[in-house]
Amino acid sequence: MVEAEVANLLGQTDEIGKMLRSMIRSLQQKS
Predict the structure, then answer these.
(1) Domain of life here (predicted)?
(2) Nearest partner of 14 among 2, 6, 26, 3, judged by Cα
């Protein structure tokens, strides 16, 4: 039960991390 919540939270943070990395990559390309 707790493991599932932790896995879900890690999955969400991983998605956010991917979004942030793609945003940073696009910002670096513009400059």
Answers:
(1) Bacteria
(2) 6
